[in-house]
Amino acid sequence: xxxxxxxxxxxxxxxxxxxxxxILASLLVILPLILVSIISVSSAxxxxxxxxxxxxxxxxxxxxxxxxxxxxQIRDSYLITIVHSFTGTFLSLFxxxxxxxxxxxxxxxxxxxxxxxAFFTMLFSGGxxxxxxxxxxxxxxxxxxxxxxxxxxxxxxxxxIILRTFIQTSIPDSLFESAIIDGASYFRVxxxxxxxxxxxxxATIGLFSLVGRWNDWxxxxxxxxxxxxxxxQTLLQRIQKNIDFIKNNSDAASTQSGLELLNAMPxxxxxxxxxIIATIPILFAYPFFQxxxxxxxTIGSVKG
Length: 304
Description:
Low-confidence stretches: 300-304
Largest sheet: none
Number of helices: 17
Order of helices and strands: HHHHHHHHHHHHHHHHH
Mean pLDDT: 79
CATH architecture: Orthogonal Bundle
Shape: globular
Strand content: under 5%
Structural class: mainly alpha
CATH superfamily: MetI-like
Radius of gyration: 25 Å
């Protein structure tokens, strides 16, 4: 056995310790999700008597039933969220990967200036008010699906730098030079070499971008009034705010409509049902990225 192999080998004792730590860390992630799922199908009486428990005295789907009473709004919100999340992620990956490919070319004139320009946007931005004025008054993107696609993280400088580093460390320059000598254009090199060999990096950045877009509620709150374009996270946040308002406001709770809403929508189970509705779809998307995600995190970390 070589000295290097012995250095990288873990003893059985440490292997057990590390396995126990990872199991405990996994339980810390899985058990809260299971508890939230159970509370979402627990009756209001069970929560009031037993509190949060893995073994409720009565199972009830009232929270999901009452959320479905929003009619087509949940369906429309799901649809707009799926469309802008996946479409925005695809456009972001396409543009950022092209930008990263350009920055990875060491012989490109002005490459350092472009890199600094991208890095500068990570440190300074125009702010919320100028962005709002630009998007609403001049570009007229409010109440359109383009507000989710164009100004919302279409190009993330941090992700561009990660992709640039990924391309530089995983694809040799000689491969680019050989393709160009054979007559390939830079766009052909990008499509035929960079994209196929960068699946791990693109999947990693794609997962980050998809999760960020799926969880974005602020853009919808700020720019969207058309109920057909309200994203899922914004809708669920509005439902939760309405429940909390009626629950905490004695004047509203004393009215007939307020009492009906409080009785029809158990606050605790509804809050957990909202969490499940917003979380489950993105959890199902993760396994498709997992293989590339792990490879994308480890690529370039070991040399030799």
